[in-house]
Design goal:
By secondary structure, this protein is an alpha/beta fold. The chain has helices spanning about 25-30, 50-60, 75-85, 95-105, 110-115, 130-135, 135-150, 175-185, 220-230, 260-270, 315-320, 335-345, 390-405, and strands at about 10-15, 35-40, 85-95, 125, 150-155, 155-160, 165-170, 195-200, 205-210, 210-215, 235-240, 255, 275-280, 285-290, 310, 325-335, 350-355, 370, 375, 380-385, 385-390. It folds into 2 domains: about 10-185, Rossmann fold (3-Layer(aba) Sandwich), CATH 3.40.50; about 195-405, CoaB-like (Rossmann fold, 3-Layer(aba) Sandwich), CATH 3.40.50. It has 13 helices and 21 strands. Helix 1 (about 25-30) crosses helix 8 (about 175-185), helix 3 crosses helix 5 and helix 9 packs across helix 13. The chain binds ligand PMT.
């Protein structure tokens, strides 16, 4: 059976209680259920469990510092990690960390990431401590604040405690924690839940003969990033892609196509049910008029001419048919970019067009980053600095969400 944790990122914060010694096993169970586990360790937790053990079982670097020394990039790692989280789990959670979370203190990597979490990320807190500390009105009041905030508090169990006393305060069974994570992730509603999003990606290939074709440099990275981000935010995603070398994003319905005509058929078949369509594919504008059934021999003539015919403009066709759908195109330009993008926006009847340049370093085809501007049909230009395509995918989806709220789609 496919686990709901497959491909999900569990950010696990471990704080300084004796139960921390159990967490390598917790990580192992979460990994077994398919999750990518990113561990955060407070200074006190290091007294009970080592980053080496947790790094080994999680197969990820363990973050222990707001200013990580061995993580490339910068001290803003906590912001990026918070955005990747499918769920934020604190186990064991000490009274001290619970108090910090309740009151918004940010003095270590765990509390920083907590504050940077998007509001859609569910938070599960598993307190574990001595009975007197757990039942203290201060701890109970802090837990109540977290409960009111919508977080899930996993009640500790009763039994023998590290102090030698018996009472409530033991970390629940690890399998119960994993079950809760599963349940929460399965029920988590992203801000795009209930939306069906159709995304196109990659190039199209227009056959010349059985061994040759006309195509372009699109890698599919932009479209795949959009599909993956939309799926993580709860949308039902159908990704129509030309030939690329990327793994299908988890949870996305991938329909592979070759030519512009194939892509048109697959998109049009799904258009009626879509709420949002984003065309990130680089569709070939022309195809060969008559494709040879056999390999064209170079001896057959001195020169070689191909007669090309125009492919249908998929977006333009959708623009004519659209009813409730939000239609987003991409414009790949080399010059007079704003003018050309606006022409496409109007002629294809789009709600917005995402402009990127083919001849700008770090933008367009193949690279992991892009530099985009969104031109909404209502006017204006929204500019974004150079960023990863995975990051920009979320910004494009944020924009679609505001449009859909305005249009009540
Ligand atoms: O895949 P990557 O390597 O990550 O690169 C990303 C990208 C550069 C391909 C992507 O960001 C991008 O710009 N995609 C659109 C490329 C393109 O074909 O642009 P265009 O200006 O030629 O077309 C305008 C729009 O019409 C596009 O949304 C395109 O999908 C659509 N179109 C174009 C031709 C056609 N026959 N039918 C279409 O629907």
């Amino acid at each position: 059976m496919k686990s709901v944790l497959n491909g999900k990122t569990v950010v696990l914060g471990i704080t300084g209680g004796i139960a921390a010694y159990k967490t390598p096993e917790l990580v192992r169970l979460l990994k077994k259920a398919g999750a990518n586990v990113q561990v955060l360790l407070t200074d006190s937790a290091k007294q009970f469990v080592t980053p080496t053990a947790l790094g080994t079982v999680s197969e990820n670097p363990v973050l222990t510092d707001i200013f990580p020394k061995d993580v490339q990039g910068s001290w803003t790692v906590h912001i990026h990690l918070a955005r990747k989280a499918s769920v934020f789990l604190v186990a064991p959670a000490t009274a001290n960390t619970i108090a910090k979370l309740a009151h918004g203190l940010a003095d270590n990597i765990l509390t920083n990431i907590y504050l940077a979490l998007p509001p859609t990320v569910p938070v599960i807190i598993a307190p574990a401590m001595d009975t007197d500390m757990f039942v203290h009105p201060a701890t109970q009041a802090n837990l109540e604040i977290l409960r009111q905030r919508g977080h899930i508090i996993l009640p500790p169990e009763s039994g023998l405690l590290a102090s030698g006393l018996t009472g409530i305060g033991r970390l629940p069974e690890l399998t119960a924690i994993v079950d809760k994570v599963n349940e929460v992730v399965a029920g988590a509603k992203g801000d795009l839940s209930g939306k069906t999003i159709l995304i196109s990606a990659g190039p199209t290939r227009e056959a010349i003969d059985p061994v040759r074709y006309i195509s372009n440099y699109s890698s599919g990275k932009m479209g795949f990033a959009l599909a993956s981000a939309a799926q993580k935010r709860g949308a039902t995603v159908q990704l129509i892609s030309g030939p690329v070398h990327l793994s299908p994003p988890v949870g996305v319905d991938l329909i592979s196509v070759e030519s512009a005509l194939d892509m048109q058929t697959e998109i049009e078949n799904r258009f009626i049910k879509a709420d949002v369509v984003i065309m990130a594919a680089a569709v070939a504008d022309y195809r060969v008029k008559s494709v040879s059934d056999t390999k064209i021999k170079k001896e057959s003539s001195a020169g070689f001419e191909l007669e090309l015919v125009k492919n249908p403009d998929i977006l333009q066709t959708l623009g004519k048919k659209k009813k409730k759908q939000i239609l987003i195109g991409f414009a790949l330009e080399t010059d007079n970019e704003i003018e050309h993008a606006r022409q496409k926006l109007v002629s294809k009847n789009l709600d917005a067009i995402v402009l990127n340049k083919a001849n700008e370093p770090g933008a367009g085809f193949e690279v992991d980053t892009n530099i985009i501007r969104i031109l909404p049909a209502t006017g204006g230009i929204i500019e974004f600095p150079k960023a990863l395509k995975t990051e920009l995918a979320d910004r494009i989806l944020d924009f679609c969400l505001t449009l859909s709220e305005k249009n009540h789609v």
